[in-house]
Amino acid sequence: MSAAPLLRQVFGFDSFRPGQEEIVNAVASGRDVLAIMPTGGGKSLCYQLPALMRDGLTVVISPLIALMRDQVRALTEAGVAAAALTSGNSDEENSEVLRAMAARELRLLYMAPERLASGATVPMLRRAGVQAIAVDEAHCVSQWGHDFRPDYLRVGELRRVLSVPLAAFTATADAETRDEIVQRLFDGAQPQTFLRGFDRPNIHLAFQPKDGPRRQILDFAAARRGQSGIIYCGTRAKTETLAAALNQSGLAATAYHGGMEADARREVEARFQREDGLIVVATVAFGMGIDKPDIRWVAHADLPKSIEAYYQEIGRGGRDGAPAETLTLYGPDDIRLRRGQIDESLAPPERKAADHARLNALLGLAEATGCRRIALLRYFGEKAVAPCGNCDICDDPPECFDATEAAQKVLSA
Ligand code: ADP
Ligand code: MG
Fold it and tell me: Measured at the alpha carbon of residue 291, what is the angle toward residues 194 and 384, in degrees to the nearest 5?
């Protein structure tokens, strides 16, 4: 069946989101594809729909059991034969999946990359007549990103062995990560690449130099009392002290970081999902699994480590499309700290240079004298035409701006 009727009948959508249709067509026609779309852009559909347009089985590599579960549940409810092989399954569940696969009943099979480490998996997939591979969150193959998953490196080998087309999806857009994905998943052969839709026009962008940072953050949070928000901090200790300070000023806040027990972390995640108006004060450990549509604000109490990290973190706000506010604080200590972290890391020199460039791109954004969105989208390779009208600089353009432009005209005349 072709794409449009499936879109309606199976997924219940009237139209494609921007970018989806071209990607669906490229994937369905059996090309190798790399698609970069922001979080919430609708990447899942871009491999699910083509899986139903072709015969046989599509294997989906996905990093999180929770993500796989959600998708399998939604697909099954829509009448699609989909299943996941995960460590969270019971033995009975797994043998039912294997049976359905051997009987060639399944259209989509989700699995974590760790499965590929078992010698039995690849021969099993060969016998099941896999027609295509989809790789979700493909940036997990990037050794220097903070979501690195070593077993993603096995996916390239799977593609070689099965010799079927592969479509990779990620929201991480920078050129470095893209190159790494092409090297590791496609053996360096350039796939058809789609990059679009990075603008999140409902998210208000704002930066402030630190000037009494505790007060700046408390004021920002207090002005948004009753709305769900995230505050990212540079250290674990700070998440605790800042959460306590917020509580003291009568705001519901709780800390979250990688040093907490798994149970305690899950409890915060569940509470955030359920409650209105909770503030989570977190390190970057609060990340990929968050899927709350109505996060109304995201603040950075400390400068993020790169422009990529900044974009990902503010992007957790406003996924429902309604307005979301952000505030990012920065000061000389942050810059020193971030530079030091890069210098002290064990990464090879070319990686350090790239990390410095990503940090410098963020500093450029922090110190921008024109529309911040234009600068941000330019970094991601998208052209923005006009000032956005939804950042602190557009709200209140600096006085010197016209003068500088006028001076430049005079100088270049
Ligand atoms: P991503 O993986 O890019 O973050 P998802 O695939 O999770 O995004 O999709 C985000 C949301 O958008 C989901 O709720 C999905 O059902 C919805 N969605 C995807 N495509 C469409 C469409 N064409 N029309 C309406 N909603 C869509
Ligand atoms: Mg996704």
Answer: 40
